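Field: COMPLEX_INPUT
Field: COMPONENT_COUNT = two
Field: RESIDUE_TOTAL = 691
Field: MODE = joint
Values follow.
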Amino acid sequence: MTQVLTKPKASKGKKSPGYSKDMYLSWFETMFRIRKFEERTLMAYGQQKIRGFCHVYIGQEAIAAGMTSALQAGDAVATAYRQHGTAISRGIPTRECMAELYGKATGCVKGKGGSMHFFSREHKFFGGNGIVGAQIPIGTGIAFAEKYKGTDNLCVTMFGDGAARQGALYEAFNMAMTWKLPVLYICENNQYAMGTSVERTSNVRDLYKLGASFDMPSEEVNGMNPESVHEAIERAAAHIRAGKGPYYLEIKTYRYKGHSVSDPATYRTKEELKNYMDMDPVKSLEARLIADQVASPEEIEEIKDRIKVEIDEAAQFAEESPFPDPSELFTDNYMEPNYPFITD
Amino acid sequence: MNLSLRDALREAMSEEMRRDESVFLMGEEVAEYNGAYKVSKGMLEEFGAKRIIDTPIAELGFAGIGVGAAMNGLRPIVEFMTWNFAVLAFDQIVNNAAKTLSQSAGDFACPIVFRGPSGSAGQLAQQHSQTFESWLGNTPGLKVISCIDPVDAKGLMKTAIRDNDPVCIMESEVFYALEMNATPGGDRAYSFAHTQIPTLGDLPADGEDYTVDIGKAAVRREGTDVTIVTYNKMIWTALVAAQELAKDGIQAEVIDLRTIRPMDYDTIIRSVQKTNRLVVVDESWPFASISTEVAYAVQRHAFDYLDAPVVRVNSADTSLPYAPTLVDAWLPSPEKVIQAVKSVMYR
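Field: COMPLEX_OUTPUT
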């Protein structure tokens, strides 16, 4: 099969206005944190300390960073199972995330969710959903509740290019537009639904065009740098908060690893991978910050050293934490405290 | 004062919507059309379009919107025109509503009610005639109610809306028209199709904010010779059969499960300890059904009390075809129940 190499195109809209040094450093820190977290995840998986289905975010870090800087505190996020980076960018501490991957009681969901199911009410992070595309109606419902309650919050509802082919998307897009719900749909198009390329799943290869049949404002965005993501989301969020209804961004990105840790990704060529490795969002942002004299190499090194220590400590915290007690099996199934489980 | 099942369900939803702003109703034809079976008649007028919401035909989508809204602080009531159509939404019910609390380790509850008619309703053929109590009752995280007694259905609906867990409520297309005398202190009786049957149970006092606990069965008729356990519209079949059996001197005790999950095993076992015989009348298909579960529990917990093997009357282990002769052959009937009771009585 011939792979079509698609270089991310520039965003529509005006040229990057230039951001403050703090903003750039904060993006770099978030992206580097996610990268190091995921590298540690792969290592621990290799050591069989992390089990189950595990999908890492390496290559897609600029989306999480650019998204979080463009949102306000009350905004909600719902995403799929490739979610470690999104959860970390929303503020769930890396030690709680790593402990969750280890299945420990100190994890962000007490060792009950694992890699695919992080949640946090405190950070309005609604998962961590393991059924492809199911979070699209759920995120739409979260937005429905914000509108019903009369807040100016929105819900970012994220999904991959694979989920874009699910019927749930059609149903949710339609109702969200009909009811003008404050929802921002983001397709993180990393170009492969597991092993199946976008080209092989539909005649419609530009996924942002799916919004057109609902008259939903839709754009294609370069997901390899945080500025273009931040800019596009700011623009979309302003539209949504003005009460004009949903907005849809197809953010072009690439995952450097397989679909899950067990996937050697033989369905794509070395040339294609190399082409995208040359655009590595973390390395290229670091290079740009130094080249443009936004930050000194020493400042960058300081961030990197700090993050490496943080991830080491997160792994140690996960290692040393206890597994959940077997009695936890019967908690959190029902809100009702004395639910009569069948035990014989 | 007569109360129909249809009116009872509407009163329950309306009363809860008056007391709690976070409750809303969504589904196909629930607003302007007043409900496919008129259960929500007049609710749009009272509560407005913000809270009584017509959806497109998109069960998966609006069930998922309900789940998201419930996770984010609202209390949705999602109506399915029938549970047969809810199959399209099972991903959201089974994979999300039921599991959100567990996978978020208690961070996100999902206080939602999914409701609509379940079971056969005449010559509606294969796709519109199924029961789903055993399908959904199998799933931890859900609660399942299936009850046509108007007073109790109202009380259960109110409890379900207030409940902090996801609740599936199975109603009955045929028995939306079932009426009961609900006069406080009066004679509790059902009337349907020009027939009246006395029935046991509580009645609310005038003006009482009446609720019924989830997970409690009701004895609809007391008897000493055999226990009949049933639910939803088979309660009518069982009560008709019990009246006939009485003419032969057989006193059947009829138990209405009301809640499928969690099941009230205590009430069933207490009755079997008294009658020593059990027939389960269950509209679901026989394999891995409600009757299977009841029979297991009784052999496990009342083995020494049984004077005969447990017998069940289910719908036939086939899809339901259209022709009237085939519908009659498929569905449990009073005659089949009488035969089953006589077999456990060795008569």
